[in-house]
Amino acid sequence: MTSDSRGSAATAEPQARATAVDAHDSGSHAGPAAPTRAEEPLGIGGPARRGPLPLAVRQGLPGLVILVAVMLVARPVGDPDTFWHLAAGDYLRRTWTFNGPDPWSTMSTQPWRLHEWLPELLMSAVQQLLGLAAVAWLLPLGAAAIGLTLWRAIRPRASLLASAAVTSVTFVAMSQSLSLRPHLLSFAFAVAFTAAWLRSARDGRPRWWLVPVTWLWACCHGMWFFGVVIGAVALLGIALDRVVGLRQWLRLAAVSLASLAAAALTPTGPSLLLSPFAVNETTQYIEEWMPPSLHQPGFLGFLALAATVVLVWARSRRAVPWTEVLLVGLSIGLALLYSRTVAMGAAVIAPVAAATVQTLLPPDREPVARREVRLTLGLTALGLLVAALVLPARATVPGWGAGDLDAPLSALPAGTVLCNDYGVGGWLIWAHPNVRPTIDGRVEVYAAGHVKEHIDFERAAPGWQSYLARTHCTYALLGRDQSVVEALTARAQWTVARRGSQYVLLRAPR
Predict the structure, then answer these.
(1) pLDDT 10s digits, 410-420
(2) Under 8 Å between Cβ of 347 and 305
(3) Does residue 292 share a domain with residue 186?
(4) Where among 352, 383, 414 does a domain terminate?
(5) pLDDT tens digits, residue range 387-406?
(6) Is residue 316 part of a domain?
(7) Which has the closest alpha carbon to 61: 168, 176, 164?
(8) 454: domain range?
(9) What is d(CA 329, CA 475) in angstroms, rounded to the nearest whole number?
(10) Is residue 445 a contact partner of residue 108, using CB atoms and an 8 Å limit?
């Protein structure tokens, strides 16, 4: 960070420094450059260079990438966590209670905070008004939001071909997490926040709109704090790059501090600030919280982005700004941490990757013209329209759960404690409020010991009988091939009440 004595000079020349950085954005390695068209407002046309494809075709590429992504996720509701999010929205509409005891499981021991209440309300209202197929349409809508955010963040930094390529690979990197959950919004927010802080690193201007958007993010998903983390990393990079003076840097820092304060003012209250740490003890037992694998296409997609950036930087003669280096480091750290955060890493690295790829191409990239805007928005709308037309025929019933056992489950007495397969717990909460599952995807409300004992129970590991005694379950809904099914029937005298295609309903001895 610069001192006050140097700060006045640095502050007096923000545009000169921004111009030098824009030379990097356009692929130039020479000295001071003429003002770039990279940040030209949407809807303004201009001369375009020749390319391997006609200009009209290239201008349709961003929208075509988004259309394909939207169509690929037009499928029935199949994420097990979607169902408890629906139930949470129903519960909130009835009670308007954002914090308190868990209303569904008898085995939960931690307070339940509805820190994703805004999309849950939306999902619940859509389901009540239009049915489950309309809920399934929210996944294509989320993919469209991510795609449009990527386009808006990337196009000022790269040509049409480069931006389409980076957007495509980014979607691949996010593919494992493109499911109907509020985390879709976190990916779009992360792209927007990264692009905003990169612009602040160029021109020294604080983006105060990040403060209310952080509040909105904090009402949508638990990963809201990554917006503050992105800002903190960018602030460190801006200080190391010495592009602004101390007073201007403090103004930028005030954006992050105000964003953190805004997150404490949601209906969930200041306790939201502690929610990121609520799942730490249980992450070791959940698959998506495991480290990523080279067998995962999404992780390979992220590695392609990261490798491209690092290799281009290694061969470049110019000095890479610290802000970009640290943001790329953050993205790599996120991707290596958990399978769940690979998509977040892709969101952070995408704007930097686009600018880096652009350095390999001619610098006179196409300006964003009205035709490109019309094609991008039009093709996105077309994808959403087609998804809306096909989903009623394929998504009126859930793609997850034990639907063929609905009748016997509905006949169980209210308050029946059910030892259940972990994956079907959320569906039970939504589809059968008369039962009380012993586990579900809201692992933050369960003690770590309980989660471990449940896993041992499903495997019929030594001591599994103690789980039955502790939970007092009188019925069980388990996968047909789970080891504990045979153990229950052969060694504990449980009987099969009904068999389904994937699950079996068992009854305790009377």
Answers:
(1) 999 999 999 99
(2) no
(3) yes
(4) 383
(5) 999 999 999 999 999 999 99
(6) yes
(7) 164
(8) 403-507
(9) 49
(10) yes
